[in-house]
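Entry 14: structure prediction run for histidine kinase. Input pasted below.
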Amino acid sequence: MSATGASEETSARGAPDGPWWWSRRRSMVLDIMLGVASAAECAAEGVGFAHGARMPVAFGVLLGLIVGSTLVLRRRWAIAVVLISIAVTPAEMGVLLGVVGLYTLAASEVPRRISAVLAGMAGAGTFLVTMIRFRQDNPQEDLGSALWEAPLFSLTITLALTAPPVLLGLYVRARRRLVESLRERADGLERELSLLAERAEERAEWARNEERTRIAREMHDVVAHRVSLMVVHAAALQAVALKDPEKASKNAALVGDMGRQALTELRQMLGVLRSDAPAEQKPVPLASVAVAASAAAEAATASATESAEDADADAGGPRLAELEALVGQSRAAGMAVDLSVEGEERRYAARVEQTAYRVVQEALTNVHKHAPGASTRIRLAHRGAEIAVLVENGPSERGAADAGLPSGGNGLVGMKERVSTLGGGFVSGPTEAGGFRVSAVIPDRTRPRPDMAEGDRAKTA
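Run finished. Output tokens:
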């Protein structure tokens, strides 16, 4: 376990690049230099210890070299270094060893209780040795002055040797913990912002998918209905071309009108796509994306809803007032269509009216495709907070089950998606008489925007 603030801070930044237990080569060089200085100091002090203990000088020097050089291990075994310094305190050697060892111990992750006990032991040993040495160096007959001079001097020396390194080590330890806490917070914030950015990207992708689905529905409704009527009129034109030129000319005019209407609606839809196409995006730094991730996520979700609500109206989408014209086109193609309206007519939100219109349009398209010549009944009911649509056709009078027109099988799915998006109900299926029924109930949960002028509403209609 690393002991000092420098080593801990370095280990938190990345993998250690120093040998053995050192996190950095610079730390290794510093410890070696301190070990050499401590060994030299202890060796010099070992000479005096050898004379006082009446031992060979070589033994004292060797002991000092061994004891002082243990300072190199301070980052690995801080407790052992402090215990060695306490053990050699009676020999009056290892001042640098004790000071640096206490600092390293206080700055390490050793429990504070152990650090306090060892610091107290080191202070007590220094105090006793200093006081004994003071009495030996200053023998006095007047014990009155010696009683307070020796303890005061010893206490001063003890505090000078133990308090500064311990306090400095505690400060470095607290500072390192603060830095680590701030780094953890920064890492957590970066992870959170990355998650927000990913969530915003997911919501944006969801919005794009919703927009593609909506465009696919619009393209299907526009192209399928118009082209189906064009095919029916083309078949009628081919049948009466030689027998009734006047009727053939009328059918040809109808085919041309329907083709022009289809092209007009396609141009309007493509115009909306071009106007809504986003500008070329430039690379954005991760920090900027992360700061705006929450707003981008909300904007992405709102974009799908607003585009779905307003795109048709901005492009001049169909409204309920155009149902008569829609029914008239099917009648002109030879279909017997009966349209009945119940309840008090009133204006609805653009999306509600367009959904009801598309349901009727797709139902008539399916009749042209799968039950040519069948009589059809359309019922539109205005209720208090909703609008109900019922389209029901009988069996094909021509005896044909299908007109041979291609079908992707997405018509009913698209109708159900439109109605479900507004929170309504949709039911479809065959009838007992052999026909088919489509029923939809659309709640009027959305309202026209209050900032739209009446002229603008009429223009969108």
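Notes: The beta strands are 337-342, 376-382, 386-393, 425-430, 436-443. Will compare against the previous run tomorrow.
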